[in-house]
Amino acid sequence: MAIHLTKESKILVQGMTGGEGMKHTRRMLAAGTNVVGGVNPRKAGRTVAFDDRSVPVFGSVAEGIDATGADVTVVFVPPAFTRTAVTEAADAGIGLAVVITEGVPVHDSVAFLAHARKRGTRVVGPNCPGLISPGQSGAGIIPADITKPGRIGLVSKSGTLTYQLMYELRDIGFSTCVGIGGDPVVGTTHIDCLAAFEDDPDTDLIVLIGEIGGDAEERAAAYIRDHVTKPVVGYIAGFTAPEGRTMGHAGAIVSGSSGTARAKQQALEAAGVRVGRTPTETARQVLAVLDARA
Prior knowledge:
The chain is of the alpha/beta class. Helices cover 36% and strands 23% of the residues. The chain has nine helices and 14 strands. A seven-stranded mixed sheet has the order 3-4-2-1-5-6-7, sandwiched between helices. The chain has a seven-stranded mixed sheet with strand order 9-8-11-10-12-13-14, with helices on both faces. α3 (79-92) links the parallel β5 and β6.
């Protein structure tokens, strides 16, 4: 199994005919992802050739779903049009919308996430690398060739650290890796993924990657303490970041002791989570837990 994305998933790409959409659609197809169509009202009815496969372009998400049975969309449209794109997908009944776009205005994110929840659409992102279930499917920009299928679940605010932990633990492999994005408002949270991994019989251990700013990791720690029975290993980016400055992601701002890496580490460790000080140390912690359970 996997969470949110499997080999059965049928994927549309909103913005497929743009530069980023073309590049990453080609990569998704090369990894075996079942991309069934693109969406661009101005190019509806055309097909786009990707190496040995041609992908049709539809005028709307609704048309794509009607023609292909698609249940996932990946959004590669500019920030100014992201709200409209996600709203359209939710109104069409898509089950999962993966929003890669960076720089989406927060008020737009709040609006389309609220609308998607009402429509029953799960959103991953915005400003995220997407998710991948190795050996099955990938929706977004996560490289498919840096790891293999396995029994670790990964949820991360950071795209780069998602890739690094996937590579560090490539000999073990992953059930699903989810990059939830680092904006102040995102559609899928650490807690959402923790709950899904807890219920997934093919996930034995969970890796949680957070970063300074906000209280998402502290809330995740409380959830782990009360609801998660599987071992969790964590990493928090930003131990050396100065207080009071925005660092990297829009959500990574620290005020006083609130939102610091140390505070998050303490909350997670109090919930029984092993927390590494570096990605490599975090990977070693994972291996130690798996060895102890063997």
